[in-house]
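Changelog-linked ticket: XIL example.
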Amino acid sequence: PGLDILAKRAGLLYFGTAIDNVVLNNTQYTSIAHNASEFGQVTPSNGQKWMYIEPARNVFNYSMGDAIVLPAIAHRQLRRCHNFVWHNQLPDWLTTGNWTKSELEGILENHIRHEAQHYYGECYAWDVVNEAFNDNGTLRSDIWLDTIGPEYIALAFRFARKYTRPGTKLYYNDYGIERINNKSLAVAAMVEDFLSREEPVPIDGVGLQAHFTAGTSPGYENITRVIEVFAEKGVETALTELDVRVKLPDSSEEMVQQAKDYADSVRACVDSESCVGVTVWDFWDTVSWVPDTFPGFGDACLWTANFTKKPAYYAISDVL
Ligand code: XIL
């Protein structure tokens, strides 16, 4: 059986993958990507980001997002939608605009309103705000913080709740929060603040991106502990972008370590009541973001360039 079938038997809601627009013409790729017994959930790795969705002010283009979401609906795969607010992959008109606070708040609401309504009812979850914190737990300086102030996060969640279908899970998503540290504790404090306000800020989940390196990934204990911290604050969690990169050139020892790190991470989610599912950040090495972003590293996915399953694939099915 595929990974999603096993994941559901193990009590998860889904096992999913990110899908990238650049390879949708490859039928070997799409036949795995939209195989619902393997992947019961998909995330567009780029297609729903601001630069593609609103390339000019108040001009919306959903073609890249739709190219992933529509086949996923047809194949009955859940969708995690990604993302409304981030510091990266913003269009030039937005980053060079020199906006006032109220102008940028208006732009933010207009963007969320349009995108949320286009995908109304089509998303199990939305990553409402992505990567807002620095490793030391302070907020990242970017156009949102610098123009609107720290309240931009709460504002984005309120807009998301207003325009998405009731029941849509609203997530804060980040990397480096897969263990207890300054950053994850700051995210937990934010959740506590949001939910304890007189007018609570609607947040349902925290996404642990889980971009790991073989041999130094946080491991079962660390991941289960931080998931428990978020659960105590009242939110669900998911591993939203799991991949385990290795130092190139690859070796069989590294593949064994990678398999262990993948399996431990998945097991941590399975064993945690509040962790709903696992998404890998693409399944095919050829389209992984890793080599471009981390020079000297790669081979981070479950399928090799020639579409054979790696030890990590079988290690995951063993723990599911
Ligand atoms: C990455 C995509 O995979 C790349 O194709 C793109 O060039 C850059 O963004 N954290 C996130 C994702 O939340 O949106 C990023 O995706 C990977 C890191």
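Closing comment: Example verified and attached. Residues 252-270 form the longest helix (19 residues). The domain at 3-319 is CATH 3.20.20.80 (TIM Barrel).
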